[in-house]
Amino acid sequence: MANTKEIKNRIKSVHDTQKITNAMYLIASTKMQKAKKELEMTKPYFNELRTEVKRIFRRANHVNSIYFYPKTEEIDYPGTYGILVITADKGLAGAYNQNVLKEVNHLIQDHDDVKLFVVGEYGRHYFESHDAPIEESFHFTAQNPTLERAREISGILLEKYLRKEIVKLFVVFTDFANGFSGGDAKSMRLLPFHRDEFSSEHQEVGEAGYDPHFDFDPSVEEILDFTMPSMLTGFVYSALVDSFCCEQNARMTAMDAANQNAQNLLDELQLQYNYVRQGAITQEITEISSGAKGLAQKRKKNEGGKL
Question: Which of 33, 169, 272, 279 is deepest in the core (most CB within 10 A)?
């Protein structure tokens, strides 16, 4: 059994680890709140863009655009699929990264002709070690999801889509559904869009001045060509921030569990320390009593010899 000095050193080590996990918990909480606030500030703009696209399709549902499925809805496009994968730059976040990679592997099993666009060092190292086809890796984006970086990523993806290097574009991310769960890894098709996502036969609530006879200048196609890149940027930015929030939430959960485990370990070590210390004290008392008894007997023997 360990002595009291060894146990005290172990207790100090666990205390130091607990300080680190507490600090990581607070840092993750602060980062998550900041990212959520930035996302809420940009959401109104992209929501208005989506509303305008809906208005276009209600007034010109016949329009053909490379950004949308044709009205015949030919789903199974032959060709290369692009997958934007959003992971973290590091671990210590529970099953956050593993869930994303599992979802990507499901997509690859369904369609093996893919090009991967990876956000996050964790995903990059994983796919490199598995010889996966990484087309582009975006460094240092997972820990700092900004609108500028989302615009840069969407620009690269859109360029390859317009060149027909990829025929479909998916994003695999972790959806931050609410503040009480870590979210679920999911895949979502970014391009091409389904018309049903935007078309509607009914006027939106609160929309004023609905007029089925609407003129577009210069043309519907050119308006969509101008609008859809911003829409794509909005989807990418939302996926980046959602994933970042989920990562921080998962890290908070992991650090909270680590704190609880550390506290349980400290309680056990304290009991062990008390037990060893009590045993040492008892042994010392026993030794002192035995020594005192021996001295008393020796003194008595000496006194009897003098008589």
Answer: 169
